[in-house]
Design goal:
The protein has 5 helices and no strands. By secondary structure, it is mostly helical.
């Protein structure tokens, strides 16, 4: 009755985006790699690609295994240093990967596909006089203009449910008029 109420999703403010970036990045690095999977899972949710999901799931047991080696071996063992370095590198790599992709995704303009874009009206050229050409000379036709690479796609309206409702209401009013005529009541007034 009042149209489609689903609007574009509310946008987050710059402070909220920065706070979330800091929290996801801190989860990966400040926990010495234990929660390196948190920013990777965030990237996987944002992009939805299989290799992002694979990296997130592989990072979880890898970080647990590295920290298990650190906790089970003595501090003087060289494997402890290697495992701790691997855990820290995993946390730093996950944080860097998250920050690069999150900044890229937020910088890219996203088109909301819930509503069609309004039609773009090109300016209409008025009547003009072309250059005078000698008799028998026909200038070549100009090539069709190429659309700008960042121009919005042409507007093709989808069949509107409002048109369907109007058609059904017209049918209903025709039916009611016919019924009023059969009952002997005048069709004109009410």
């Amino acid at each position: 009755m009042y149209g489609n109420s689903a609007g574009p999703p509310p946008s987050r403010g710059a402070a909220t985006v920065i706070t979330l970036r800091v929290l996801y990045a801190a989860a990966g690095f400040l926990t010495c790699g234990l929660l390196a999977c948190v920013p990777l899972f965030r990237v996987a949710v944002l992009r939805g690609r299989w290799y992002d999901w694979t990296a997130a799931w592989v990072s979880l047991p890898l970080s647990i295994a590295c920290l298990a080696v650190v906790g089970s071996l003595p501090e003087t063992d060289h494997r402890t240093d290697a495992a701790l370095a691997a855990a820290l590198l995993l946390g730093a790599a996950a944080t860097a990967h998250f920050l690069v992709l999150d900044i890229r995704l937020h910088a890219a303009p996203r088109a909301f596909t819930g509503h069609p874009r309004p039609p773009v009206h090109a300016p209409v050229a008025g009547p003009h006089q072309g250059p005078a050409h000698p008799a028998g000379f026909h200038p070549p036709h100009p090539a069709a203009p190429h659309p700008h690479p960042y121009a919005p796609p042409p507007y093709h309206p989808a069949p509107a449910p409002l048109d369907q409702v109007r058609a059904e209401l017209d049918e209903l009013s025709d039916y009611l008029r016919r019924q009023e005529g059969r009952d002997g009541r005048p069709e004109g007034g009410r």
